[in-house]
């Protein structure tokens, strides 16, 4: 009888132990502390675009996350062509990673079609530092991450893009960075007289001209014009695309090429090639972003210094202030085909902590799209100038509403003007002509979702 009672007691204890163990488990990501090494083992595959930010931050995330979660192994897969490589894999659900850090245009493509996990609730979940994504994300980025009222990812970086100038060259020649566009025009002539090109940019990629254009939209059209571009109504189409702000922006761009501000051969150069020409002193300034220093760290000559600055306004500007573009770059999301969704959510929360954000800035020289302190970080003067530019000057970030049809519906206006294949008037006519049909197609696509 005693033996039987003991067996029953032991059995009851085992049941209670199992129940207690079950009660201790949670389906939501744990926010704090290292996990028990006896827990189920996970391998979390993280694929990322390995561009200007390099891979050092992802390696740091792997090391630190594994320390705090000893039952998790992170497998990193970085590639400069990840934006192209990952698309057929995610869309066919073949060899799908658990987390992707890629271009945010893919978030808007994959989210509504069910290929990404809805992370709207994750924005209110507590991060390991006790804060939430919702309480620390910047306002403009929070808006940019919205896709039909849902969130399908967390932002990777916030980029400042403007004009970067050769500080030593300017100092040696007694040049001052212009406060107005008229001063810029005079400076360009002085620079050319020295046998130096005023400007270059990665000419193979016309989108490097976008920051100039977007800043000009604000300067010559004002906030009402920006609202019409990004959140138009049917009544705005097609007249919006012959607005004087477009004409002024495209004319300024046209004059830059017509007046030989742009270094000869620029259109044939990719990003690293044009950046090398700038570092060699072939051009005094370059249209580029905060990632330049990190991307070219192995090629920067000793003693070379550079500084990020905004685009100065002309005297006829509606918004008579220097403007710099500051926009969201990339996102971290979870493909719906992931087999480790809860662990992946935990990783995204960890990657969004203040500590992770500070490490990102120190390791890449760029800013994450969160509010956090950079005090005490070992960052270069160039990085400081990029961060200062976004804090000191007026910023622009075009965040298009779902029904918007972009700022150039007929053709790539910037590429057409840069290549001299179209005049300003031809570009505007092409966009006005294409706008009604583009509007109908966009509305049809929205209504089909």
Automatic annotation (TrEMBL):
Family matches, as PROSITE patterns: PROKAR_LIPOPROTEIN (PS51257), SBP_BACTERIAL_1 (PS01037)
Superkingdom classification of source: Bacteria
Alphabetical GO biological process terms: transmembrane transport
Key words, A-Z: Cell membrane, Lipoprotein, Membrane, Palmitate, Signal, Transport
Signal peptide span: 1-20
Entry similarity comment: Belongs to the bacterial solute-binding protein 1 family.
Entry-linked PANTHER family: ARABINOSE-BINDING PROTEIN-RELATED, POLYGALACTURONAN_RHAMNOGALACTURONAN-BINDING PROTEIN YTCQ
Record's protein name: ABC transporter substrate-binding protein
Organism of origin: Paenibacillus baekrokdamisoli
